[in-house]
Design goal:
Keywords: GTP-binding, Initiation factor, Nucleotide-binding, Protein biosynthesis. The protein has 379 residues and is an alpha+beta fold. It has helices at residues 44-51, 56-66, 87-101, 141-147, 164-173, 192-212, 226-236, 243-253, 259-269, 274-288, 292-309, 317-326, 332-339, 349-357, 360-378; strands at 7-9, 22-24, 29-31, 38-40, 70-73, 78-82, 112-116, 122-126, 132-134.
Length: 379
């Protein structure tokens, strides 16, 4: 097991306590002497995991930059660069590797995946901003990557990588399964009168949503807009659909990249059991939430669901936010800004104040977690 290490920002040039992308501090250990001296990197696998890259890539990068031989024993978690190299130098080289092979060239976010295009170009596919940027193919490491491609390998036709949800979606979309929750009992009144009443209320809410939405959404307030269609479909199939079906419907409507879609899904799909229900539908949100606007729509939809439809859920806001945060679809800075600034964008001001005030325990937990990280860095 690798020795414990503190953590640093993946982008070490970013001096922001709310920066969410962290990695262990690279450790080194000199072994041997004379011509057999070598530098072992005991926590390379942990560092590489934080960068979502195979540990062999940064190790080989070190060798390319230093003109040194490298060796890997993945089974025993040993990554070695021949020669004696101090930790400071290797950490500087790691910064260079991150800049060249991890960070998105457009938004400088490390949330990227390497894919091999049909042209044998190596592409950084950014899950934060959606841009695809080519790495510098003149670097020697590219030859190694082409010979040892990442396990999650996409194509250059614009499709997502073969992550677990995409794989499941592709397998199930052609022949969608029956309701996965058929044995679950729901207390919702499903009589025709009750359904019609809920539809009317939902459509009114959707119209208000569009009127209150951002200016970059060009779809009108018509209930027959893609958002209105999606909202009605989610309401009608609530409790009788699964993640694959929901995402397929969103794709059919062509609104999988719209941030307002996230809001509609939250307020139309979930019930008072949102914390439990979210576990099943988290993969959908990981697909939909790709930027700050999407996160704000996630919070806006939650605000409407809790503040207007299920006020009894207001005390559960910390649990709901924790579920979003642990699923890695909510950034600290976004939720802190939301929790401390009342707005009437999605609900009336009084309701907004109640919902956001209820988030205080979660925000306090985030602050305490940051303090713990600071103490670890000091040590």
């Amino acid at each position: 097991m690798a020795p414990a290490a503190g953590t640093v920002n993946i982008r070490r040039d970013v001096d922001d306590k709310f920066y969410r992308y962290r990695m262990p501090i690279l450790l080194t250990k000199i072994e041997g002497k004379g011509n057999g001296i070598k530098t072992v990197i005991p926590n390379m696998s942990d560092v590489a995991k934080a960068l979502t890259r195979p540990a062999t890539y940064p190790t080989k990068f070190f060798g390319c930059e230093l003109g040194a031989q490298t060796s890997f024993d993945e089974k025993n978690d040993r990554y070695i660069v021949n020669g004696a190299h101090d930790a400071t130098r290797l950490r500087e080289l790691l910064d260079s590797f991150i800049d060249k092979f991890v960070l998105c060239a457009s938004c400088k976010n490390p949330e990227t995946e390497l894919i091999i295009a049909k042209s044998d170009d190596i592409i950084r596919d950014c899950k934060a901003c959606g841009q695809r940027t080519k790495v510098d193919m003149r670097h020697k490491l590219t030859t190694f990557i082409l010979k040892n491609p990442p396990k999650k390998n996409g194509s250059d036709d614009g499709e997502d990588g073969d992550d677990a949800f995409t794989k499941r979606f592709n397998e199930d979309a052609a022949a969608l399964p029956d309701a996965s929750n058929a044995d679950t009992t729901f207390e919702t009144d499903t009589s025709p009168e009750a359904v019609r009443a809920r539809m009317a209320a939902l459509e009114a809410g959707l119209r208000n949503t569009v009127l209150l939405g951002d200016d970059d959404d060009e779809d009108g307030e018509d209930a027959n807009s893609p958002y209105g269609i999606l909202g009605r479909w989610l309401e009608e199939n609530r409790g009788e659909t699964n993640a694959v079906e929901v995402y397929k419907k969103i794709q059919e409507l062509g609104i999988e990249k719209k941030h307002k879609t996230v809001q509609i899904v939250v307020q139309s799909l979930f019930t008072e059991d949102i914390v439990t229900e979210f576990e099943e539908f988290a993969p959908v949100f990981k697909k939909l939430v790709t930027g700050e606007k999407h996160q704000k729509s996630l919070l806006g939809g939650t605000e409407r669901l809790v503040g207007l439809e299920h006020p009894s859920l207001i005390p559960a806001i910390p649990k709901i936010l924790m579920a979003f945060y642990q699923a890695d679809i909510l950034d600290e800075e976004v939720v802190k800004q939301w929790g401390t600034h009342v707005s009437k964008k999605y609900v009336d001001r009084d309701t907004s104040k109640k919902v956001r005030k209820a988030s205080d325990p979660f925000l306090k937990w985030l602050d305490e977690a940051d303090d713990d990280d600071d103490e670890d860095d000091d040590e």
